[in-house]
Fold this sequence. Notes:
Blueprint: E1 2-7, H1 11-23, E2 27-33, E3 47-49, H2 52-56, E4 63-66, H3 73-82, E5 86-89, H4 97-110, E6 114-116, H5 124-134, E7 141-149, H6 163-166, H7 174-186, E8 191-197, E9 208-214, E10 220-226, E11 233-240, E12 243-246, E13 254-259, E14 264-268, H8 277-289, H9 297-312
Parallel strand pairs: 1-2, 1-4, 2-3, 4-5, 5-6, 7-10
Antiparallel strand pairs: 7-11, 8-9, 9-10, 11-12, 12-13, 13-14
Helix pairs in contact: 1-8, 3-4, 4-9, 7-9
Amino acid sequence: MLNWLVIGIGDITRKRVLPAILAEPRSCLYALLTRGPHKAKSYPGAIVYTDLSDALRDPAIDAVYVASPVALHAEQTIASLRAGKQVLCEKPVALNYAQAETMAAAARESGRLLGIAYYRRLYPKLMRAKQLIAQDAIGQPVLVEANYHGWLESPDRGWLKDPALAGGGPLYDVGSHRIDACNYLFGKPMRATGLLSNALHQLAVEDSATTLIKYTAGVHAVVDVRWNSRIQRDQFRIIGVEGEISLDQLNGPTLKLTLSSGDVCEETLPANANVHYPAVKNFVAAVLDGSPVACPIEDAIWTDWVTQQVKDAQ
């Protein structure tokens, strides 16, 4: 059994993270850390802390889920690792690549596990796409196209518009998931650049981000994310010399394989109703059974490296 401390009771935490921990059979929601103890009323069995240092002195806590704004990830994760706790941290890893590297170093020094909650790595259809690529189903891959377009986030997550808390706008929020998916498929990026702009909304963060990434063997990825479209788009295509894999909508269940021969095959591979549940379950198995964590810190920092390259290019 893993006793969890969850840091932060925000929108995603209430909707996904806490239900995932409560549903996972080898997890116990042992404690919560929040600046507003009234937010914990819905979880009467959990100890409520308002100070992280106090919480980390509790020897009964085995694991920490860091669900605070991005600006706090490095500080809270490093403190938790040094206190001997295993850590699953929300994405993106940190405000910048340098902070992400300090978190990776702290994990190595502590000997504790640090995973990042890039839960799309556990989407059955993304795992199937990786398998098809390995089987040479589309020949040599040459291009990935990923778009996520929508409108501004809800007031519940208003901190996303503050660069001091979030690091950036859609590049950090929805873009990081798509960049990580590309890294999951093709490994460590070799080069990256991009454009940020405020095409419509004059915010302290961008409302549009376009990223270009180069991987080994000539694979290019283009990731375009924005908060200025009234039309929702969630597109993800992997194009090869002999065919393509469409995952449109990325958050939907369908995988479509189209071959140069004209053959078309569709598979229905839905994600878990709570997309955070597989990530929590995977992390528990990694801690208790020694199985691989879906997104270890050593993989996750490369998304921060890409976003750093894009910001440095401005």
